[in-house]
Amino acid sequence: MRISLLSVLVDDQDKALNFYTTILGFIKKTEIPMGEHKWLTLVSKDVLDGVELVLEPIAFEPAKIYQEALFEAGIPLVAFQVNDVDAEYSRLVSLDVVFSLQPTQMGTAKIAVFNDTCGNRIQIFQVL
Predict the structure, then answer these.
(1) What superkingdom heads the lineage (predicted)?
(2) pLDDT band at 12; cut points 50, 70, 90
């Protein structure tokens, strides 16, 4: 058994696609129209055959409530590993990304948390 897909709930797939590719640097792998929404996946530019990130449209009311509750509580929906949290933080701030937690060391990791503009807080982390 292995992980091949990870869904991130988003309130606007097109806006999310722009943010996750243009700002975060992921690469679009799949885009298949499916009526009002689409099957939309991204991959890391460093691991093209790795886990696919599904930009999942929020069309289910309980999912909206869950997303809003996580955001209000300051809890990240997902975490992405980076080589250097401080450098990534600086890069993203220069692109006007809003952080709710600046780089902070926690045990053997350094983390930071930002708003993805699509309803989620996203954590980046670096293992020290």
Answers:
(1) Bacteria
(2) very high
Residue 78 carries which side chain, given as an amino acid letter? Answer: V
pLDDT at 22 (0 to 100): 98
User: Identity (one letter) of the amino acid at 65?
Assistant: I
| Percentage of the chain modeled with pLDDT above 90 | 99
Phi, psi of 116 (to 5 degrees): -85, 5
The CA distance from 9 to 20, in Å, is 13
Question: Cβ of 24: how many Cβ atoms within 10 Å?
Answer: 20
CA distance 109 to 119: 25
DSSP 3-state of 118: coil
Q: For 103-115, what is the mean pLDDT?
A: 98
Average pLDDT over the chain, rounded to whole? 97
Angle at the Cα of 39 (from 15 to 96), degrees rounded to 5?
20
Phi then psi for residue 100, to 5 deg, are -100, -15
Task: Give the tokens for residue 23.
Answer: 């700002």
Written as one string, the DSSP assignment of 72-89 is HHT--SEEEE-S-HHHHH
90: Cβ–Cβ under 8 A, 6 or more apart, which residues?
none
